[in-house]
Every structure is written in C-alpha cells, then in structure tokens.
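User: What would this chain look like folded?
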Amino acid sequence: MSKKLLLIAAVAVMLMAATSASAYYYESWDGWFNSGTLAYNDTAYTIVGGSCLTVDDYTLDPPSDRDTFGIWIQIPRIAFVCVAGSGDSIFVYIATFTGGKEYGTSGTKEGEGYWDGDGSQRNEYGQLVKIFDFWGTWSATFNYSSDPSTYSGTWTVTGSNPPGVTGGGTCSGHRTYYE
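Assistant: Here's the prediction, encoded as structure tokens.
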C-alpha cells in the first residue's frame, strides 16, 4: 500500500512540475505598414519602398490567453515614406504599437491593436519638420503553419492632430525571430 502512495505522490509531483514549466516566448515580425496611402491637405501620398518597422510580441509566464505586442526598443527611425510627387514626401515615424493576438505558436491566430506616430516633411533647408500626429488601429492573421511563420493584415488611420489625415493599407511579413 505504501508503494502505491509513493507512486501516486511521485506522479503528482511530476505533473505539478510539468504544468508550472515556463511557457514564455518572444517573437519579432517584420513588414508592418508596407503598403497603403495617406491623405494630407487634399493630397494622396502612397507608401514607397515598403517598411522597415519590426514589431515584437511576447507571452508572460504563466501564459495568458493573449500575446502582447509592442515596439520594445525605441529607436528613432522612419517606419515608411509616402510620396505624392517629386519632392513631395511624408516621412512617417511609428512611436507606439500595442495590442495582442491569440496565445500560441501553432495554427492560425488573430490579433488586433492600436498604433500612433507622426508625419514629417523636409523644409527648405532639408530638415525634417513634424507636420502632424496621427493614430489608428491594426488587425492581422498570423499563420504558424508555414515556414517561416507569416502574417497579413490591415492598418487604418482613425484620427490626427491637426485633424484631416486619413488613410490605411495592408501589412504582411514573416516571423524573423523566435525564442
């Protein structure tokens, strides 16, 4: 009888250890804001050259039902450039990117969130001068069935200061890092 109790206790300890094992992971995704248009002062600006913005997500230990998104290393950089014509460009910096996706790294996961940033143009001296702040939403589907894992989604401008900046577009990319 004592061997059975000892075996049951050993199995219980193993199950507790297995369920408390770390479920933390960290991912990076490239290609955010890689196509679309902005309208500013009655002029349409189209994204050229894709995007250099990479966004990260992580899961806490113990895991929740959502993975958290963000730009964890704040490096002043241009996320994308929109062009209306020769010498008429808007340089966009994305300062905040938040939200989440369904927990896990298999199958297909849905995500959504918010972002904000600003737009700048070059003045007559060639210096970048901020012309507006703006913000919006994003949504994406993450596909872990491909190798490398991919995602595709949309972004939309929902407001600006000064008012009047509108636009939106698509985003797609790959998981570039996983730990």
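The CA atoms of residues 28 and 122 lie 31 Å apart. If you want, I can go into more detail on any region.
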